[in-house]
Amino acid sequence: MTPNHYEFPPLSLATVQAHAAHHLRTGGATPYLLCDLNIVTSKVDRLRAALPGVTPYYAMKANPDPRILAHLHTLGVPFEVASVYELETLLSLGVDASSIIFSNPVKPREAVEAAYKYSVTTMVVDHLDEVQKIASVSREIQLCLRLETSNTGSDWPLTGKFGASTSEALAIIDYCGKHGLPLMGLTFHVGSQCRNLDNWHTGISGARLLLSHMETAGLTPTLLNLGGGFPVQHTRPMPSIEAIGATITDALTGLPETVSVMAEPGRYLVGDSAWMVTRVVGTATRKGHRWLYLDVGAFTGLGETLEQFDYELLCDRDGPLVAMTVAGPTCDTADLLFHDKLLPGDLQEGDLIYLPNAGAYTTAYASTFNGFPLPEMVLKTC
Question: Which of 194, 315, 331, 382 is flagged as catalytic?
Answer without folding.
Answer: 331
